[in-house]
Specification:
449 residues, mainly alpha, 18 helices
Length: 449
């Protein structure tokens, strides 16, 4: 006799948990540094357009696929696609989730280390230059990075063992509202700094001369990364919905709106502070850790503020970490027939091992380069710009050619509220999404001039 499939405790629980999956370091860490490297307002404009036109339809389709399959990606796509090439959707998604987790966990280790330093009074808030040197020195010590990373992963594993409702859903109900309140508060503080409004103008005024093929590729890759398209978290969470009594279109739109809002708010925290300190916005992956030192150095009780900030950034990262780990765990449960604990600790162990060479890439293996990128940067680039976009392309092609728009529309609208998939979605799902994502994939592979 088969075990009944777990279900979400409520529609709000599903929305908050899936928002927790979407809103994470992709918004607070990755979005600001990519915007800084790609023209600020120009990148923001393209990002928002792509999130609405491509992110919402694809995220809706991924959730709907999960609900239809009532199984996780590998088992679900075997069920839906049979022996056709589209069963690769499951493998692409799980591969992306694994690759992202391999370096995402290290960023969680960085954040934990900075929280501990601030809490103990050892966080230097006096100099942005000193913060940059301190960050470089810390990431060059892989043993110390892993010493902070592994306990975080064990904490995530403990929460996952509690199951869907008592673990992920309960954590999301508590953490997501707190995260948004803190983002808004820190943005208000950042805007009070002298020179902050120069950063606002740079952030909101598009410089169209800065837009090129790489901008579109980075923006779509970031939209997929931040929203969670293609990494199968939405597929997994959708598989726990009731087959006919869940509002997929309304939930997907709400989740993407919250995710985009979080990214925009993170920009209002970062860029006013950058311009106030006279720094260039293209600081790269260390932007979060370097810039904030200057911000907290300007605040009364800066170390206390730093401890609170890194604690809540930790929360943002943890909610996404839980979803990615659940995707890997649930996939092992469905595909291998293992229990939750065995699946979880196997996935966790393999993920931690995969992070070791990436941690070494910041220190002893720093000279190892592939295509001009270090191991950490390579994992970020391949997962965000290749795996996720190819996965999104295959999902869009499956909906357009195999599932068919009308059947997708009927399935997705079952249980929907006022916001529904309409006939106007047809050209978007059949043509716009596959063509746009296909062009970006080709650009990412270097096949377009």
């Amino acid at each position: 006799m088969s075990t009944p499939r777990e279900r979400w405790g409520s529609p709000l629980g599903f929305i908050l948990a899936t928002t927790g999956f979407s809103v994470g370091l992709g918004n607070i860490w990755r979005f600001p540094y990519l915007a800084g490297e790609n023209g600020g307002g120009a990148f923001l404009l393209i990002y928002v357009v792509l999130a609405v036109l491509i992110g919402i339809p694809l995220f809706t389709a991924e959730i709907s696929l999960g609900r239809r399959a009532q199984a996780t990606p590998l088992a679900g796509m075997r069920k839906l696609a049979g022996r056709s090439p589209f069963r690769a959707i499951g493998w692409l998604g799980v591969g992306a989730a694994f690759l992202i987790m391999s370096y995402y966990q290290l960023i969680m280790g960085w954040i934990t280390a900075y929280f501990v330093r601030a809490f103990r009074g050892g966080y230097d808030t006096g100099s942005v230059q000193a913060a940059a040197e301190s960050f470089a020195a810390f990431t060059a010590r892989p043993g110390e990075v892993l010493a902070y990373t592994i306990p975080v992963m064990l904490l995530a594993g403990f929460i996952i063992t509690r199951g869907l409702r008592r673990g992920i859903e309960r954590a999301a109900r508590l953490l997501i509202p707190i995260l948004f309140f803190f983002l808004i508060g820190l943005g208000i503080v950042s805007l009070q700094l002298d020179g902050a409004w120069d950063g606002v103008r740079w952030y909101l005024a598009p410089d169209f001369s800065a837009i090129g093929p790489e901008t579109w590729l980075a923006a779509l890759g970031q939209a997929f990364y931040s929203i969670g398209v293609g990494m199968m978290g939405a597929f997994v969470f959708g598989s726990f919905l009731h087959p006919r009594r869940s509002d997929i279109p309304g939930s997907a739109a709400s989740i993407v709106a919250c995710d985009t809002l979080a990214a925009v708010l993170a920009g209002f925290v970062m860029f006013p502070a950058l311009f106030a300190f006279g720094m260039e916005p293209d600081q790269g992956a260390g932007l979060l850790f370097i810039t904030m030192a200057g911000l907290f150095g300007r605040l009364p009780a800066g170390e206390v503020a730093a401890a609170f900030f890194f604690f809540f950034v930790f929360i943002a990262g943890l909610t996404s970490c839980l979803a990615l780990l659940e995707a890997l765990t649930a996939s092992a449960m469905d595909s291998l027939g293992w229990g939750r604990r065995r699946s979880l600790w196997t996935a966790l162990g393999v993920t931690i091992l995969a992070g070791v060479p990436l941690a070494l890439g910041g220190g002893p293996w720093a000279a190892v380069q592939v295509g001009g990128r270090g191991l950490f940067e390579l994992a970020d680039y391949v997962s965000g710009n290749i795996f996720l976009t190819v996965s999104g392309l295959t999902i869009s092609l499956y909906v357009a050619t195999v599932w068919g728009f009308e059947r997708f529309r009927a399935e997705t609208n079952a249980g929907a509220g006022r916001f529904r998939v309409t006939a106007a979605w047809g050209p978007v799902m059949r043509f716009l999404v596959p063509v746009a994502v296909g062009l970006v994939v080709l650009a990412g592979l270097g096949l377009l001039g």
